[in-house]
Recover the amino acids of this structure.
């Protein structure tokens, strides 16, 4: 398999990549060589609080001196890919964003989520001991992955969700394919449309009836979109 068929994948805020397997099979059948990286704090250990820049430099070390990369990022993985491609545009040939995070929102539900995360991160063990209050807040914020995270990862998430990448999008030079679920309630389609407007060499494909993870629910469709555009 030639290097230009390799796709480096940064997954979202999950603690296992098991659900990716059917989609990876679809990509392999299309002639690609997908490589899912283990992300510190999620599918690999993390022993201190990180910022988005820490993730960018971690990924830069992971790919070493490789150039002309094809990157695929989902949700938080897309946030890392965007920041990396903006800082190192010469290293990325093609970028695939699936329901990517990275656009800062200040609507009431998002403010509530940031409040919950920030409160939990500041209170630390005290918050962990207040089990009833904790569960109510997480239920209200609809953020169960955060509930499972250890204190270091929680503080790391707070650092990430404060970042707005929209001003960096103009620095992207890679041909960018934006794929979005039409009924995503986590990162709205409007974010994808905004990315399409800001990234000069980009197209957007909407997956009808898909939510936040179309590569899981519509794996064949998403793999075909990637094959068609790459």
């Amino acid at each position: 398999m030639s290097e230009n068929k390799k796709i480096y994948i940064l997954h979202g805020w999950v603690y296992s990549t098991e659900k990716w397997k059917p989609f990876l099979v679809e990509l392999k059948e299309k002639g690609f060589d997908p490589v899912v990286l283990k992300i510190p704090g999620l599918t690999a250990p993390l022993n201190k609080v990180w910022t988005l820049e820490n993730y960018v430099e971690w990924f830069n070390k992971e790919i070493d001196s490789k150039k002309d990369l094809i990157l695929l990022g989902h949700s938080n993985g897309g946030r890392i890919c965007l920041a990396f491609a903006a800082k190192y545009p010469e290293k990325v040939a093609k970028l695939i964003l699936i329901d990517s995070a990275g656009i800062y929102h200040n609507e009431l539900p998002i403010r509530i989520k940031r409040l919950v995360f920030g409160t939990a991160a500041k209170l630390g063990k005290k918050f962990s001991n207040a089990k009833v209050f904790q569960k109510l807040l997480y239920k209200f914020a609809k953020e169960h992955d955060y509930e499972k995270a250890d204190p270091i990862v929680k503080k790391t998430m707070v650092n990430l969700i404060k970042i707005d990448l929209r001003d960096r999008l103009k620095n992207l030079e890679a041909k960018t394919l934006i794929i979005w679920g039409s009924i995503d309630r986590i990162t709205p389609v409007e974010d994808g449309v905004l990315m399409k407007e800001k990234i000069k060499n980009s197209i957007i494909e909407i997956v009808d009836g898909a939510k936040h993870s179309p590569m899981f629910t519509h794996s064949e469709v998403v793999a075909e979109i990637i094959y068609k555009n790459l």
Remarks:
- The chain has eleven helices and six strands.
- The beta strands are 6-10, 33-36, 69-74, 92-98, 175-181, 202-207.
- The domain at 3-103+165-229 is CATH 3.40.50.1820 (Rossmann fold).
- The two ends are 16 Å apart (CA to CA).
